[in-house]
Amino acid sequence: MIYDPFQQKAIDYIKNNHSVIVSAPTGAGKTAIAEYILTDCIEKGEKVIYTAPIKALSNQKFRDFNERFPDKIGILTGDVSINPFAPCLIMTTEIFRNKVLEETQNLDSYSWIIFDEVHYLDDYERGTVWEESLIFLPNHMKVLALSATIPNIDEISAWVQSIHKRSLKIVKEENRPVPLHFFYQTQGEIVDGIHKVNTLAYKTQKSYYYRGRRFPKHGYIKPNRPTSLIKHLSENNKLPCIYFVFGRKRCEYLADEMARFDFLNEEEKSNIIELYNKLCERFDLINDKSAQFILPLIKRGIAYHHAGMMPTLKEVIERLFTSKLIKVIFTTETFALGINMPARTVIFDELRKFYGNSFSSLKTRDFYQMAGRAGRRGIDKEGFVYSRINPHYITFQELHKIIYGQPEKVQSRFNASYATILNLYRKYGEKLYDIYGLSFHYFQAKKEFRRKALNLLHLKVKILKELGYIKKNQLTEKGDFASNIYGYELSLSELYERGILDNLSETELGILCVALVFEPRKSSSMPRLSKNVKSLHNMTDNILSQIQRFETSFKIKPPSKNYFYHLSLCIEAWMRGEEFDKILHYANEDEGEIIRHFRMAIQILRELIDTPVSPEFKNKAKKVIHLINRDIIDAERQLRG
What we know:
Layout: H1 5-15, E1 19-23, H2 31-44, E2 47-52, H3 55-68, E3 73-76, E4 81-82, E5 88-92, H4 93-102, E6 110-115, H5 127-135, E7 142-147, H6 153-164, E8 168-172, E9 180-186, E10 189-191, H7 194-202, E11 206-210, E12 213-217, H8 226-235, E13 241-244, H9 248-257, H10 266-282, H11 289-298, E14 302-305, H12 311-322, E15 328-331, E16 345-348, E17 352-355, E18 358-361, H13 364-371, E19 383-389, H14 396-404, H15 418-428, H16 440-444, H17 447-466, E20 470-471, E21 474-475, H18 477-482, H19 489-497, H20 500-503, H21 506-517, H22 531-553, H23 568-576, H24 580-583, H25 591-609, H26 615-628, H27 635-640
Parallel strand pairs: 1-7, 1-8, 2-5, 2-6, 3-5, 6-7, 9-19, 13-15, 13-16, 14-15, 16-19
Antiparallel strand pairs: 3-4, 9-10, 11-12, 17-18, 20-21
Helix pairs in contact: 1-2, 4-5, 13-14, 19-22, 21-23, 21-25, 21-26, 25-26
């Protein structure tokens, strides 16, 4: 294989036993470097771990690598465990973090760890997992870290080298193999230069202020019709197209709007129907209502893809897209994350999205993560990126910063969980505070912020002592229990200590675990609860309120998660053996959301089995897993297929 210069540079470092961190644009070919390590390790009889930020990417890598290296690939994602002792083991970063804290000896046979999308260090909710994984990385394991373009790659490398006293070679690639050509749709027109957008949409306009932000004052705003834009792409040979939308319902709405188009000739139409039927049969979707609902769009070369869909149907859509028979796909941003789905054109429905707790302009790094899907290597001379601009919603300065600004630096989000702290306390006792000095946060932060972070660590240890997880400088039985449950430690541990978990029926345990992992959307509504579930609801609310009072008094953020019983009727019906399409009537959540939360509940149950609970409880938890993990919920079945 002939490698690009940056790929060859990284591989040369790897051949000389150096760890490597690579920063390169989306679509530049970073995965080829990871594949070299996989091939080399398998040929030498060595073992390698590949971590990914989301389960969808882990699943895709498992399928892709398994085709190349049959029987040599395994996967662990919490709800899936296939071939767990394979030479190449794919896992989510959370699973790896748990292993380095709890099962270090089980990693002795692995010589490499690959961190895909390592810029996830910057993720507010999950970034600390990457940081902890790098801090506690076993000394014998070499690292390949793959990242989108970030300006402080040198800083990350310097930090890792400072804590592990090993070389971490840096490889940077600024250029894309397929350059991007930017276009804009504004005031009902399509233009190919940002200066033209300024002239057409912003200049000679008076200003007004809205929610503290300055906008041009317009009279009549001409509509930017998505149908006009798609027609333009079709007429100018710029399909296939990935159309990014920041909302599931809008994905489906826009796809339906395009039903007036038919992008397929008779041969393509025949091929896509044949392929779709084969895939639906393979994934048991022949009689599925959602699969039938999207079929008229599929026949026209149109599809949508988002987290609310059934995982099997999403996989069918992905396979249709890679077959080049889908010409326009409307999708949310997860389609851009590592999954190898390039197109000739990318469209942004808007350049604002929800970040954490408010809407704001897209980060430059996020924009290029998605825009990088435009341009197919070896097929297209350039990729086309279209942004739909409404001057009422985004200023010219914001637009310019998104397109031409420097990608944002990766900032530490270090915030050790209670389970992490308990595992460290078991090993280091009161010396665990020294661990903070190894963090990327300590490496980056100024003195004041270091003091605050260390104080938060002290406060978390204090609350664990106050609540009886640590006594006489040792973990109690409750502390041992909590050290196995990442993210839900305190509430489950209190239920365990009070004997509540042991006294729950199988159905109640299933309801409880789903309520723990469920996060309601704005459109979610609570169903009428049965007497038993109301009692469970009140019990968990009382325990949470006590825990959160402690956390508030110690100023610990974010607080422990509440239980939400919106899916209680769904899980109860499912555990009774009802069909999946029947249980949908018990909630207003999307199919994909229900499946995802049922699978997350299975992961919690598996973690509970690994705690020091009674044999009777372990057997009960195994029965609950068996009742939930069937048919469409069984994630392993989809991968084994």
